[in-house]
Amino acid sequence: MHMAVTTSVPSATRVRVGGGASGGAVLSGVRDFARRLDRPLTSYYLIFGSALLLTALGLVMVLSSSMVDSYTETGSAFSIFNKQIGAAAIGLPLMILASQTPVRVFRLLGYPLMLGSIVLLVLTVFRGEEYYGAVRWLEIGGLTVQASEPAKLAFALWGANVLARKEELKQLVEWRHLLVPLLPGCGMLVLLVLLGSDLGTSFVLMAVFVALLWVVGAPGRLFLGALGLVGALVGIMIAVEPYRMARLTSFWNPEADPYDGGYQLLHGLYALGTGGLFGVGIGGSREKWGNLPHPESDFIFAIIGEEFGLIGTLIVVCLFGVLGFSGLRVASRVKDPFVQLAAIAITTWITIQALVNIGTVIGVLPITGIPLPLVSAGGSALIPILVGLGILLALAKSEPDARRALAARGPTHLERALSWLGLDNGGAKAPAGRAPTKTRPTQVQARRNRRR
């Protein structure tokens, strides 16, 4: 008996110690992951990495999903892909340039970008090209531009600058300063976009408007009033256009009209269902062979699900989740009001647009014709989003110790060029090839030096 008890106790002890060691390893791993996330440049690299991965995936999927339609329309299987890779070749350098630009430049760009967007939207209303019942495209110099896409970036920067100035002047204690001129500016853009029958972009602009009010701490009644106004406008926009109401009813029950209103949604769901867990393989989609309308743009997420399966769609969702988390992290870790507001506005724009597109493809939201950011075909959408992410990268450098960590690695060639042009970051680090200026020691430092 005594020996049995003696042997059983160490055995039980070994079990407890083993479990504790395993739990300790997990806890240690969690703490190590948390420490890595707390590094100064975490947001910067998460934004940069997820943006590049989504852009690369988008190029691959645009090629795969557009080959059939491209060959049918132009005789070349690469016509749409060539336009997309050309837009990426323009957008990626602009993203890098924006990431190295001082924040004060973005504050100055808000008003001219807003004015330019209004002019382009007005021209689109009167001289735009109509496709599928919507007037969203403007031909300039042989290039077709969708003016509503740069308007999202313009409103994000302009709205952030307007509220940041009012915050610096301590004017946001009055409700009229919260809404003027932010509400009229948003209303003008939404009206011009609606005249082109673009409900999806209107919803994104209103979402950015509500997000900006939320960040500045708008009173509950004003915030609820803004949400109610947005809901009322969406309801009016749906009611005044018969085709929007048809889309809404077909979204509720696509099987009721499988050859017209519910056709696109049903074939998008067929594509997702065919993909299963791992997909049919890259290039193996069946729905892109004339069955699914716009497989390279509005419904490219369905082709991703068909060719890469549930795993591929979850990777895309996770990458957008990383972008959203990183943008919110930047806004929560900085003190500058403009940086906070601009980070929230750009993050809201990209993540809400992604959620709306994915929601329409999987059948939980009505079809709005809004593209999947960084992934869908369309240079007018890709270039502004890449510029917006470049601005978000520049804002990420405003996090505590982030600029110091970058300065310790030495200036890049682009930063040397900006410094030579007088567009450096305002003295955050010494120009290349020059020793840092020695500052006069404080009285405390002088006393410490004398003691030594």
From TrEMBL:
Primary localisation category: membrane
Keyword Transmembrane helix: yes
Membrane spanning residue stretches: 44-68, 80-98, 105-126, 175-194, 199-216, 222-240, 261-280, 300-326, 338-362, 374-396
Residue ranges, annotated region (Disordered): 424-452
UniProt-recorded name of the protein: Probable peptidoglycan glycosyltransferase FtsW
Annotated catalysed reactions: [GlcNAc-(1->4)-Mur2Ac(oyl-L-Ala-gamma-D-Glu-L-Lys-D-Ala-D-Ala)](n)-di-trans,octa-cis-undecaprenyl diphosphate + beta-D-GlcNAc-(1->4)-Mur2Ac(oyl-L-Ala-gamma-D-Glu-L-Lys-D-Ala-D-Ala)-di-trans,octa-cis-undecaprenyl diphosphate = [GlcNAc-(1->4)-Mur2Ac(oyl-L-Ala-gamma-D-Glu-L-Lys-D-Ala-D-Ala)](n+1)-di-trans,octa-cis-undecaprenyl diphosphate + di-trans,octa-cis-undecaprenyl diphosphate + H(+)
Keywords per UniProt: Cell cycle, Cell division, Cell membrane, Cell shape, Cell wall biogenesis/degradation, Glycosyltransferase, Membrane, Peptidoglycan synthesis, Transferase, Transmembrane, Transmembrane helix
Enzyme Commission number, as recorded: 2.4.99.28
Pfam families, per database record: FTSW_RODA_SPOVE
Molecular function as annotated in GO: lipid-linked peptidoglycan transporter activity; peptidoglycan glycosyltransferase activity
Organism: Nocardiopsis ansamitocini
